[in-house]
Amino acid sequence: MEILKTVLMILLAIDCIALTIVVLLQEGKSAGLGTIGGMADSYWGQNKGRSMEGTLVKVTRVLAVLFILLALALNLKVFA
């Protein structure tokens, strides 16, 4: 059981580092203020889900769910 706990802790550390990097790569919410000037109709505004920003949002969600699952698994009484 100690080996499994160690592996989960290493995965959690890698996930934390990756999550931090992905969040820092994202643009701030203030970048979306261009919609006031009508920029929402641009190519990037219409295809936001397929752009790099959309990909980063999806990766952030996956890494966040993985973080929560790993944290819960490490806190189970089985590993104590």
From TrEMBL:
Q: Where in the cell is it found?
A: Cell membrane
Question: Does the record bear Protein transport in its keywords?
Answer: yes
| Bilayer-spanning residue ranges | 7-25, 59-79
Q: Which Pfam families match?
A: SecG (PF03840)
Lineage, top-rank taxon, reads: Bacteria
Q: What is its main location?
A: membrane
**Would you identify the family this protein belongs to, as annotated?**
Belongs to the SecG family.
Q: Which NCBIfam families match?
A: secG
Protein name, per record: Protein-export membrane protein SecG
